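Re: the request from the purification team.
They wanted to know what the chain is likely to look like in 3D before they choose a buffer screen. I agreed to run a prediction and write the result into the notebook, where they can find it.
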Amino acid sequence: MSDVLAGLDKIHWADLKHAYGPADDVPEQLRALRSESPDERERALYELYGNIFHQGSRYPATAPAVPFLARLALDPSTLKRDEIVQLLAAVAIGYDEGYLPGGVDITGWRAEINRMRSADPAEERRKLDLWVEAAQDAGERRVRSINRDTYDHAEALRYAQAELGAYDAVRAEVPALRRLLDDDDPLIRAATAYLLGWFPEEAVGSVAALQALLVRETATGVTANAIISAGLLTATGLVPQFHDYLNGPEPLLRLSAAIALTRLGVVEPEVIGALAEASMIPPETDAEPAVSFLDGDLRGYASQTLATLDHQLPAETVEAVVKGLSRTSEVATFSMTAAALRLTFPHGAPRPLPPFEELTAPQRRVVQVLAELGPETWRWVNFMSILRSWNLPSTHAECRAYAGLDTPE
């Protein structure tokens, strides 16, 4: 064993907590990532996702594990290093859907932690009471009441500080991890390009590294991740290069450039057209490496990007998003539904809900599309919660009845 994990046993892991209690199992899992056995590595990675990153949460044991994960990722003798880089990204930000398409607002994040540290718990409780009282209906009030009644300010602050601590631990490794953009393995290059996009405080060095990568890169998936990350890092100097990709022959790079340009405020007909096209028919992504953002949901990413433009879109672009929604099912509908509703209900949820006939034509269209989605989609609580937040019928039968459709058998 090399000294990649030197110092691992000097940390009092049993005194640190993860999702399942004392973190004394973490050293063994980190060592197993060095195993030559695929089964052992896979099990260790699965266990780390389960304990130091449990369903997106981070814990006191998470940040101390980061330097060792980074060293493992940087050591060429470690196998499947791209998976470790992906774990580092997850440890830093949780699930990326909460940050897209805008990227990490680290200034706001740090300000919120400081506010929580100085907040009066009693005043926080009063704010929650007002929030519950402001609910628009009984269902929303019930959900808000549960959130209020289970809220513990001290515990919330501990979780928040653990999350920011994990983020800062990964940020500290970013300068070293940039070297992986030169790795021979395109999967590692793609994962690293994805990782760099979440650290705006490291933008100067990361944008320069991504720009250099774009000059020499030949793998389309790596290039796509690099373009999107550069956009998240506000790389305005790369706008001419993004235009070259936008006007090029490769659909995935056209979409990536359109996403980056929109993030930079460059909204042109060609940009909107590329996003609309991908909302209906996303680029093929069979080849590796794939785009990491939103777990490769390119249709959802394109539609969410369009949704940030609100009133700036022509009717045919909105229809492209709604048509794309009609072609999705199950979890893929979540981001598409949110985007389509934001575009068709630009003034927010209709309260009270008017008769179906009084909706605008685009609104009637999206409600019909939602009603016609299959039962495999309507079984998801997440999907129904999105509709409830827009004050739309949130059961399949009610939605079909509202749209004037027969109730499915």
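For the purification team: The chain has a mean pLDDT of 95.
Please add any questions underneath this entry.
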